[in-house]
C-alpha cells in the first residue's frame, strides 16, 4: 500500500496542449465578462435626487455607478442662492420638482422643475414672497403638483404642464403645514403647530383635521391604501391612521429616539422606515433609522446611519432604502433583506429631502 501511494503516475492528455489551454481560458474569461456586462446592461437605470438645503443644490446619484454624482446648482441667473428643502420625482418619471426658499427673505419662493433626462433646470415657478415653501408632491397622473407654504398655512396646487398656480387650499390660521403625501384624490398634510393632520379632498376642496396630539412633521401612505403614518417629533411617536375605519394607533419609538422627521413605506406595505433626526427642541442629533412592522404597528429594528438622519425613500422594487444624513453631508444605503447599511455616499451640503427615479417612474 505504501509503495502504491509513493508511486508517481504520469497520465498524458495529448488533446490539451498548452496553446489550446490558454485559448480555452481566454474564451471562458470573455464569456464570464460578457455575462456580467449583460447583467448590468439589462438592469434598469435608476437614480436618487437629493435636496442639499445648505448647499443650494441637488445631488443626482446614478445607482448603477455611485461615482457618477452630478450636482445641479439651483441659483437663479442673478446668482441668488435658493435653499433646496425638498425634492420629488413625478410618478411618470418625466420631471423632478424642488421647493426652493431664497436666502434673501424679500425674494420670491419658487418651485424648480428639472428634466431627469438632461438633469437641467427647465422651469422656475414663482409662488410668492414670505411663504416658506416646504414639501412638494404630485398626483398619480403627474398632472398637478402640490406645495406646502408654512407661513400662509396653505397648500398650493400647480398645473404640471402649464406651470401655473390653479388653486390654493387654505388650512386655517396657525397650522404651519410641512410634509404631505398624495393618495387616491386626497392630500394628507402634516401640520406642525396645530399638531394634527389635514385630509384635503382635491375634487371638492373639503378639509378635515385629524388631531394627533404631537408636532406632526411628515406623512406616509402605504401603497395598499390601508394606512397613513405620521411622525410626531415632540412625543417621539409614529401614528398609524386607518383610512377605512378612521382609527388611530400610536406607536412609541425606542427610548433613545430623539425625534423623527421623514418616513417611507416599502411598496409591499409591510415595513416602514423612520428617520430619527433629533437636534430640534435642544435634543442631541440622532443617527438612527427605526423599522416598523406595519401590520403589527411596532418597531422591530434599529439601524445606525449617519448623523442627523432626515429624509428617506425606498426603491421601486422595495429592496433598498436611502437616507439623508444632514450633518455628515452623505446618504446611507440600507439593504432591506439584511437591515444593514451597505454604502455611504457623499452629497452636497446639508442634504434634506430625497426622491427615487427609474425608467418605470418615480416613487410617490
From TrEMBL:
Residues 85-354 form the YNCE-like beta-propeller domain. The keyword Ribosomal protein does not apply. Transmembrane segments: none annotated. Keywords: Signal. It comes from the Bacteria. InterPro entries: Host-pathogen_enzymatic-act, N2O_reductase_N, WD40/YVTN_repeat-like_dom_sf, YNCE-like_beta-prop, YVTN_b-propeller_repeat. NCBIfam families: beta_rpt_yvtn. This is YNCE-like beta-propeller domain-containing protein.
